[in-house]
Amino acid sequence: MTGGPRSGRTTVVNALLGAPAVPDGRLPCTDPTVLVRWGDRPGSHMYRSPDDRPDWFSLEQLVGWAAASAAPFMAFADVLYPSELLREVALVDGLADDPGPADRPHLRVHVIDATVGAAPDAGAEPALLVLTKLDLVDADERDACRTAVLAPWGDDVPHVVVDAPRTLRALAKRSGRAYVASGGAALLHAVRRLAQGRRAV
Questions:
Q1: β-pairing, 34-38 with 76-81?
Q2: Is 81 exposed, middle or buried (0-12, 13-18, 19+ CB in 10 A)?
Q3: How far apart are CA 23 and CA 13, in angstroms?
Q4: Collapsed DSSP state (helix, strand, coil) of residue 63
Q5: Global pTM?
Q6: Nearest residue to 80 (alpha-carbon basis) of 97, 94, 62, 64
Q7: Cα torsion at 20, 22, 24, 29 (round to 10°)?
Q8: 130 to each of 111, 160, 163, how far by Cα in Å?
Q9: Residue 101: its pLDDT value, please?
Q10: Which Gene3D superfamilies does the entry link to (predicted)?
Q11: DSSP letter at 74?
Q12: What is the pLDDT of residues 85-106, one digit of tens each?
């Protein structure tokens, strides 16, 4: 999962997981490396250096530290969460290259704030673009905004539009209609297709 600052990348990760499992704030890492994978006990291993023995922290501690920007310095965070999606795929929040097993396919999902846009960069071509914050654009300008944001990326890159905060609220309220309307179902479907080795949309 890649994207610019404040693009909504972490909120999109949480929308995929179905809960606010990854801290939405700034963790003081040398690189913004947060690996999210399946675990039956929610929490995180935090590494102070690449060859360090990790410390275990609860997700509540991570969330508090991220909100206050007060976490101990770390080089890497390995978040464990019992989401069924994570049985199929591991997510890396913030990097184009995956620190996971070499035999696992690496696919880039790039998050773009539609109110800002983003030109293609030198990283690997995304397998999926996720447009966020399009709901903040006036309703009569959304189609033109979406077209303008997608234009630099070409016609070959699949995309979905998601209101990730609304997705999380819909899941908390168990509202299937709001979940679909927020783009959450389309996002999950696209990522699952990528995990199965098929085109996202």
A1: parallel
A2: buried
A3: 10
A4: helix
A5: 0.84
A6: 62
A7: 170
A8: 5, 5, 10
A9: 47
A10: P-loop containing nucleotide triphosphate hydrolases
A11: B
A12: 999 899 887 644 444 444 556 7
